[in-house]
Amino acid sequence: MRQEIKWSTYRKVPILMVDDDVQLNDSSVIISVLKTYLINKKKSLSEVIRCYPEMKSVNDRGKEVTEYNNKYWLMLSEDENALLYPEKGMSKEERKWRQWADDWLVHLISPNVYRTTGEALASFDYIVREGKFSSMEGFFAKYVGAVAMFIISKRLKSRHNLQDDVRQDLYKAVNDWVAAIGKTRKFMGGDEPNLADLAVFGVLRVMEGLQAFDDMMDNTKVKHWYQRMERAALNHEGRN
After folding, report:
1. What percent of the residues of the chain are helix, what percent strand, and what percent coil, each to the nearest 5?
2. Are residues 119 and 111 in contact, defined by beta-carbon separation less than 8 angstroms?
3. Theoretical Cys-Cys bridge with 157: which of 90, 92, 111, 121, CB 3.0 to 4.6 Å?
């Protein structure tokens, strides 16, 4: 992956290049920009991008971090906003849970996927099988990567104050999500997924094929929503 983005000073994925000269970073910003651009026909893509200014700061560990103003907002007119969010509170709810996916849910993935040495090895075995590695690269990626991520996952567990059994944090998080949707809605967006549904689905999907994913499906109430999201993604459904 590092070789594939070596041209960029931004070292995380996803990265979206627009017309080979505009680079968009951060998945939530990319989604907000593209959704705004698809709905708001009065703004050019460059004008939309300017609505999400980049801000650099130093975090509590002394590391420079980049954040973006308005990253969970769609820059729409009043009429466009009313069409996309016909019920009061829908926009605010969507932003809240998109941010929750970024600030909390995503931090539960590594501690669960690399919870034990066996799970770490299984995870990297999957990564190597699906990735572009030579035999030697695959060997080092699997064994060195698994050991490194097992150690890092323990640091992340401590940093985010997770329980000794990190599965319980994952189970609670996805059950909280299902409870927020409630029993009368198929998705948080109602009959169709909204951007919060998309954000949560994207985070959970990275665990597919791994033990953590199977345990989550067996021990939480998320299965039916997740299966609906799989069908919706396949059929390109969503609020528009």
Report:
1. 55, 10, 35
2. no
3. 111
Q: What residues of the chain score a pLDDT lower than 50?
A: 1
Sign of the alpha-carbon dihedral angle for 39, 40, 42, 48: negative
pLDDT at 1: 47
* Nearest residue to 99 (alpha-carbon basis) of 75, 71, 76: 71
Angle ∠(17,132,105) on CA atoms, nearest 5: 65
Residue 198 is inside which H or E element, if any?
helix 195-205
Distance in angstroms (rounded) separating the CA atoms of residues 81 and 232: 22
**Tokens 């627009």, residue located:** 18
Q: Give yes or no for a contact between 72 and 95, defined as CB atoms under 8 angstroms apart.
A: yes
The predicted pLDDT at position 145 comes to: 83
Q: Judge contact between 193 and 240, C-beta under 8 A.
A: no
Structure tokens at 111: 């501690």
Task: Give me 16's structure tokens.
Answer: 């979206």
Can you give the pLDDT at residue 136? 76
Q: What is the pLDDT of residues 60-104, one digit of tens each?
A: 778 888 888 899 999 999 999 999 999 999 999 999 999 999 999
Cα 148 to Cα 110: distance, rounded to the nearest angstrom: 12
Number of Cα atoms under 13 Å in the Cβ half of residue 133: 18
